[in-house]
Design brief:
Elements: E1 6-7, H1 29-53, H2 56-81, H3 97-125, H4 132-153, H5 161-190, H6 195-222, H7 232-240, E2 247-255, E3 261-268, H8 275-290, E4 294-300
Parallel strand pairs: 3-4
Antiparallel strand pairs: 1-4, 2-3
Helix pairs in contact: 1-2, 1-4, 2-3, 2-5, 2-6, 3-6, 4-5, 5-6
Length: about 325
């Protein structure tokens, strides 16, 4: 049985998969540079102060800030890699590097938390005098450095998991630094040495809790799950509601990167002379309703016959029509 297969490919690369204001691999280049430079200097200063002042809280904060430097570097590198053109081998380009970087960053974060937890337990078992003034001074500097870095990424944190990861890490660090200042003051005025590791435990808990959503999302993206914010049944129903469509099958939605989403589907619909117009309209509507910018739609004018391998409608195309981009 022959079928009329119409394909619609929207390869507009203006990050149409998600409606973002500014792409992370463009205008956020300076933000990544500033963030990495400032935090690297601060990590060295904070770690030295932690050893000098015997502060587990400062050391734990320095360790987390170091993971943030690695996170920013990986995110920046992946964003730059994603700008490379597609090739005969990598036909989608290198956009998925942003997903891999986000996953590695999440793994590095929790590995760092485990190491810091071990150090904090050791400090709790063997408490030593803490320089409260030094702790407050360095944590105060951390509020400024991390707060400023978070601000650099604030305008794009809703659009890209890489940028959001940088923003959340920096914002969390700024808030945690506030807690360290308070803890340093308490240790200074009360002399209770056990407060410092307790504050470190609280810091670790806040970071682990605040980063869980990022870890969950990056794992989902790496497994090509339907991105957050898109419900597949709603997409299916939307396609069924289109003029003339009687069936939808072989529907797939997956992330091309942390910014772009793709869709493929077979629609059973009587062939008409207005197929081009239908595909163009569908392209626009999917972008507006679901933020899906890369679509491939195959139209079939009769119900497809299932093949032995489970694929439906896998007959060679008689006609292909590309919708306007």
């Amino acid at each position: 049985m022959a079928h009329n297969h119409n394909h619609s490919h929207d390869h507009n690369h203006n990050h149409g998969g998600h409606s973002h204001g500014i792409p992370a691999d463009g205008n956020f280049g300076k933000a990544f540079g500033w963030g990495i430079g400032l935090n690297l200097v601060f990590v060295v200063a904070e770690a030295a102060s932690g050893f000098w002042g015997n502060s587990a809280a400062l050391l734990s904060d320095a360790g987390h800030n170091l993971s943030d430097v690695l996170s920013l570097a990986l995110a920046w590198g992946a964003a730059l890699l994603a700008k490379r053109q597609a090739s005969a081998r990598y036909t989608y380009g290198y956009k998925s590097a942003t997903i891999q970087a986000a996953l590695v960053n999440a793994a590095l974060l929790y590995a760092a938390l485990g190491f810091i937890l071990w150090e904090t337990i050791d400090h709790l078992r063997h408490p030593e005098p803490v320089d409260g003034k030094l702790v407050m001074l360095m944590a105060g500097a951390g509020i400024v450095v991390n707060g400023f870095t978070a601000w650099l990424f604030s305008s794009g944190q809703k659009g890209d998991v890489n940028v959001r990861g940088a923003y959340l890490h920096m914002l969390t660090d700024a808030l945690v630094s506030v807690g360290v200042v308070v803890g340093g003051a308490l240790v200074y005025f009360t002399g209770w040495l056990w407060l410092d590791p307790i504050i470190s435990f609280l810091i670790l808990g806040i970071i682990a809790y605040g980063s869980w959503g990022l870890l969950r999302e990056t794992v989902q993206l790496s497994l090509q799950a339907v991105p957050d914010g898109i419900e597949l049944p709603e997409v299916r129903q939307f396609l069924l509601d289109q003029p003339g469509v009687t069936q939808v099958h072989d529907l797939h939605v997956w992330p091309l990167s942390t910014q772009e989403t793709a869709l493929t589907a077979h629609l059973v619909r009587p062939a008409t002379s207005e197929d081009n117009q239908f595909l163009s309209h569908l392209q626009v509507e999917l972008r507006e309703h679901f933020n899906i910018g890369h679509i491939t739609v195959q139209l079939e004018d009769t119900t497809p016959v299932p093949h032995e391998d489970g694929c439906q409608g896998c007959v060679a195309a008689q006609q292909s029509v590309a919708a306007a981009g």
